[in-house]
Structures are given as structure tokens and as C-alpha cells.
Amino acid sequence: MGCIDRLRQLGFELPPPFPALGSYNVVTTAGDQVFVSGLGPIKDGKAVSGVVGDDMTLSDAQAAATMTMLLILASLEQSCGLDNITRCLRLTVYVRATSSFKDHPKVADGASDLLRDLFGPTLLPARSAIGVSSLPMGIPVEIDSIFARRASDRSSNPQDAAP
Fold first, then answer.
1. What is the pLDDT tens value at each position of the chain, 163 positions in all?
2. Torsions phi, psi of 91, nearest 5?
3. Which residue, among 142, 88, 95, has the nearest Cα to 116 in the 3D structure?
4. What is the pTM of this model?
5. Pair 75, 27: CB distance under 8 Å
6. Domains defined for the chain, CATH in brackets
7. Which of these, 33, 67, 31, 30, lies nearest to 48 by C-alpha position?
8. Which residues pair with 131 in a beta bridge?
């Protein structure tokens, strides 16, 4: 079963990919690694905003992390095809929260649990969850990530060509 079918089986649909907001690529590759720039939760084309522990609950923040991971997966699908991705290697999850909030890893689980369900429990990524006081557009969660892709996909990606 392909990744898109597996996501549907889990009850998820990929959102439209979100364009870069500055001078960078949302997705870039090097060898068998795919790097995804920091993305946040987008719903109906608009950024979800909030501060975890203030106007956003832990459950809402976990849902925002899941929403963000779906956007990351949509970017991967557009860039190199999700079925060419073998696993996530690394996640860095930034959580915009009050200074008294202590459950940053639980927020990050919203993204990690989706990856576990998609790729399997033995292929969970390394991960950091970091509390911050602000994020672009007032989003509650930003995630950057590194994925591994099949070696056979590398030859067709222009980013891998030597200059």
C-alpha cells in the first residue's frame, strides 16, 4: 500500500502544499536526504495561530502538529513523491507556549504519532521539542525535518545534479 492510501486509511488527506514565504526552498535534497524547511499549521489557506497554555490547549496544539506534519508530507509528495520516502530521520518541533508550559514533547507527539502510523513504530525519527516565545504569523507550532528517500529517486531530481 502506498503512503497516500495509508494516509487515507488513517483518515487523513494531504492539504495543498504551502509556498515559501521568503528566499528559500521549502524542500531541498542532498543525496538520499530530503530537507524540509520549517512549516506550521495551515487550515483553509490560513495560518492557525495561538499560544499553547494560553489560548490553545495541549490537545489543540497536538492537532496543530499533526496538521503541520500533513503539510510537510504534502510538500514531499509535490517535490519527490511520498512513495520515494522511506522514513523521517529528524524532527525539530518549535512550540510557541507560555513560560509555564512544560509539555512540549507531548505537542511534538502530534507529528511523531502520524509518522509512526505511516512508516511504522521502528522507524520513528530523532526529535527535539523546543519552547519559544514567538513564531511567524503567530503559529503555535513550527516543524523542520529531514527525510530519507530511495536511492533510485535521486537520479531524476535536478537538485542532485552537479553544478
1. 789 899 999 999 999 998 888 999 999 999 999 999 999 999 988 999 999 999 999 999 999 999 999 999 999 999 999 999 999 999 999 999 999 999 999 999 999 999 999 999 999 999 999 999 999 999 999 999 999 998 765 544 545 543 3
2. -125, 140
3. 88
4. 0.92
5. yes
6. 3-18+26-150 (3.30.1330.40)
7. 67
8. 95
